[in-house]
Design a protein that fits this description.
Elements: H1 11-17, H2 38-59, H3 62-80, H4 87-95, H5 101-118, H6 125-136, H7 174-185, H8 192-206, H9 213-227, H10 238-242, H11 246-257, H12 262-295, H13 305-314, E1 317-318, H14 320-327, H15 331-343, E2 348-351, E3 357-360, H16 362-374
Helix pairs in contact: 2-12, 3-5, 3-9, 3-13, 4-5, 5-6, 5-9, 6-9, 7-8, 8-9, 8-12, 11-12, 12-13, 12-16, 14-15
Active site: 207
InterPro entries: Fido (IPR003812), Fido-like_dom_sf (IPR036597), Fido_containing (IPR040198)
Domain Fido: 123-270
Length: 383
Amino acid sequence: MSSLPPDVLSRTAREHMAQPYRAAVPPAIADLEVRLPRATAAAAEEASVLIRDFDAEVGGDVAPFAAILLRSESASSSQIENLTSGAKQIALAELGEEAKRNAAQIVGNVHAMQAAIRLSEALDAPAILEMHRTLMGATEPEIAGRWRTQQVWIGGGGYSPHRAAFVPPHADRVEAAIDDLVAFAGREDVPALQHAAIAHAQFETIHPFPDGNGRTGRALIHALLRRRALTRSVTVPVSAGLLVDTHGYFEALTAIRQGDPAPIVDAMAQASVDAVANGRRLVGDLRDVRAGWAAALTARSDSSVWPLMDLVLRQPVVNTAVVQHELGISHTNAMKAIGRLVEAGALVEVGGRRRSILWQSGAVLGALDAFAARAGRRQLGAL
């Protein structure tokens, strides 16, 4: 449907809009026989081994790093949609401080990823709606968690699907197509990474929401990887790998719509390789940061300063309320622990936007921003 009033469109445009257009009719995939070239299947298996190994490596430090990697994946997925924000703005938005709109939308994506992991064992239509509801609820509540009821399109003019690069199925077909996708997602006979790649591509083809399809669809990848136990502890930041070649990623989505699933599986396999390389660097940087803090501190083993270090790794901007809640300690003890990290150079005091007192870790924020800067650049020799 047109997003512009008819009286502001030219006569030619109005005549063009009156013509029929073609919308996709996605083929059913519930019983799809997945056939891939040998090289594609091998690449997917090699990437799967890397994912399993990385998940096991980081799993021992799951308390800080699971949250860090999930947030990094959410930021990268948002960046594919041209929603970018620095680590500090994201941290402020998570605290409920005033932050830029992009940061608030990225926090919504964090919540969608969390919902995807939480709901991975029961991956059905209500679960997909819940992922979208948590993604869009704070910024576009009128569409959050609701299947679209109008035609949408990708590319072309802003007022008509006639010149679009791709026109997803008519809204009347959405729910049946989602049911078919859910049936495919419930299978166990397709290797996990191939399974996630094809399910994601089918979701993007259905495009079941007015907005937020890309971010919800990439959350679906992680729900499937967790359900199939390819990941058990952490979220591998696959979207950071997809940023290496977004043009190739979008071309791969086009290819599967034309009947060839190999390019999207190839893209997901390479993205996973790049994601593991970047993720390992991030975890290594943060382990170095934590080791530096520990070397500068002398405290009893039961001191609150030790769990506070892990909290700051996953939440690099804190206030006393967060420290009290997360560590289960009094305001006095929270202030003492914060003071110890300030003395060690781990935290510095900054002003909150609501006249609150905040403390931030420049080292952690720097490591997160460095991860984001590397996303989209292949990390040669990092494995």
